[in-house]
Amino acid sequence: MRRYLVGGAVRDELLGLPIKERDWVVVGSTPEQMLAAGHLEKDRQFQVYLDPELGEEHSLARTETVSGSGHRGFVISYAPDISLEADLRRRDLTINAIAKSESGELIDPYGGCEDLRKRLLRHVSSAFADDPLRLLRILRFSATLSPFNFSIAQSTMQILHKMTASATLDSLTENRKWKETQLALNSPGAKKFFDGLRLLGVEIHSLPQLETLTKLQPDVAEEFLDRASTIGARSTEQLAALACLSAQALDISTTTLISTYPYTLCSKQDQGWVKVVLTITTLVRQMSCQCTAEDYLRALEQTDSRRHESRFRSSASFVGELSKSSTYAFLDANILRNLTTAHETFMSVGIQDIPALTPAKEIGKALRAERLHAIEIALASGV
Fold this sequence. Notes:
Blueprint: E1 2-6, H1 8-15, E2 23-27, H2 31-36, E3 40-43, E4 48-50, E5 57-60, E6 62-66, E7 74-78, H3 84-89, E8 99-101, E9 106-107, H4 112-118, E10 120-121, H5 133-144, E11 151-152, H6 154-165, H7 174-185, H8 190-200, H9 208-215, H10 218-230, H11 235-250, H12 254-258, H13 268-286, H14 293-302, H15 309-323, H16 333-348, H17 363-381
Parallel strand pairs: 2-5, 10-11
Antiparallel strand pairs: 1-2, 1-8, 3-4, 4-5, 6-7, 8-9
């Protein structure tokens, strides 16, 4: 039984990046031997085991044979005589197909080290085209590794164009598309991901906001991504802001666009962030100087700004930063300042500010009326 460090851990170590997680391939072993050695079974289908002390994943060496279409259309084979080289051959890119023994020796049968030196993203074998997810993954890697200025090998680009022409992405679930897109949005070079989509003519139909971005003028898209990256926005905030930009570009209401947003692909917490940003941008984009105290109060209630104060403040700050960009010139900074004033006033009015003898069933109505009145005064006085 021999184990080798593989994948991103080896690649990142060679690039001088911090290692986020360490994955191992085990050669010459069986499930029974892994369990006897004390490893915990994590995934029976893919023969993945966890080190009981460090929690690091250990996978039995395997090969994959195409059996159908899609990300899961493979027959997986495990056997003690499957070599490390055979296991590495099934991987997507040469820079992800480098292994390292426990003694520190690098095993690089497909030229990954040289491609790291050349800053080249190159497929390991023709089997690259069998998995449609790899089209998005390689674009995501170009975004993630943007500080190193990686480019995609010409031979690999030819495969990507063929994959696009055959509509292989249609076999992927929305969740798989979203996961790769989210990782790209959280990377330092998200623009390269969208540039790649545009170059290949890819339209991610389940994410209409992203489809819109790929069609925007390059300088507009670049400014959006640079601005979002500079202020360190969460990917969900970026997508919400992009929805606002799309609504402006397509001349439709943000509310209409929300109905197409893939909420089911986000956690409930992320859905909350998206809703807050979209509510704020809708108010600032659509209402302009016609905003009333009632409009501000309704926005504060819709975003649950009292119960989730920090989320509201962070989202308002994010929209404020966007408004400084020429791309988002349609966001009225004055309306945003008024919204902040309204929120501070809203937070200052509580149960103690309504008459003590107010009937219990009227408390909610009276409290809202008091908050609305306080917001009207604050806005009128310019506080």
